[in-house]
Amino acid sequence: MTAVTVLLGAPGSGKGTQAKRLAQHHSFVHLSTGDMLRTAIKAGTTLGNEAKVFMDRGELVSDATMIGLISETVCSLPQKSKVLLDGFPRTLPQAEALSKTASSPVGKVIFFQVPEKELIRRLTGRRVCSKCGASFHLISLPPKKDGICDSCGGALLQRPDDSEGVVQKRLAIFVAQNSQLLDFYRKQAKLVEIDANQPVEELQASLLKILSL
Ligand code: AMP
User: Fold this and answer.
1) Active site residues per annotation
2) For the residues of the chain, what is the DSSP string, one character each?
3) What tens digit of pLDDT does each residue of 170-192 get?
4) CB of 95 closer than 6 A to ligand 1?
5) Position 102 pLDDT exceeds 80
């Protein structure tokens, strides 16, 4: 049996940053559908080529594709894995499909709340290393040398979907889908809401409490 914790939240709400830390220090398997798709794009697979068109426009990839990708990945994990889902489910059909996989029941669903203005600031200022994937921010976490990754010296780039116009579209799509997801998990008494507009360390401490770690 695989225990699944779902991290819900808008793009830029800090789910990925928190999940990476939990994976490093608390043996969670971090599954980010956005990262999986970006890896597929880099590798030039059919999935990557199909997904890129939607991702660059800030639109969602089809439910069928995403449900297939996640169920395949979850099934391939060792038994008793502790999984953090980051970026999935994003729609009600995805949540319903996830709830039907008996071997990987969803435990807690944690919703990261951040005001929209702050999300826009975080996303449009984000710069990501093209080599190692480390994430920086032009104002709140600038690299030591402009445009160069502190960790590996790779070039820092803006994700195509972090440009201002595309960010607005991603946030609008998030708002349109998310209330259905919140209702779905609230009815099952799985939803925990968390103020994610706080420093990384403090948010991590709150998460550890919620996860009883
Ligand atoms: P993220 O890195 O989570 O912001 O995801 C980047 C992009 O990948 C999204 O804007 C979508 O185009 C696509 N994507 C990631 N996860 C999903 C999902 N569960 N359903 C549909 N599209 C997704």
Assistant:
1) 15, 90, 126, 159, 170
2) --EEEEEEE-TTSSHHHHHHHHHHHH--EEEEHHHHHHHHHHHT-HHHHHHHHHHHHTPPPPHHHHHHHHHHHHHTSPTT-EEEEES---SHHHHHHHHT-TTS-EEEEEEEE--HHHHHHHHHTEEEETTT--EEETTTB--SSTTB-TTT-PBEE--GGGSHHHHHHHHHHHHHHHHHHHHHHHHTT-EEEEE--S-HHHHHHHHHHHTT-
3) 999 999 999 999 999 999 999 99
4) no
5) no
Q: Is 184 in the pocket of ligand 1 (CB under 6 A)?
A: no
Instruction: Give the mean pLDDT of the chain.
Output: 95
Give the mean model confidence (pLDDT) for residues 154-165.
95
The pLDDT tens digits of the residues spanning 41-54 come to 999 999 999 999 99
> Which residue CA neighbors atom 11 of ligand 1 most closely?
60
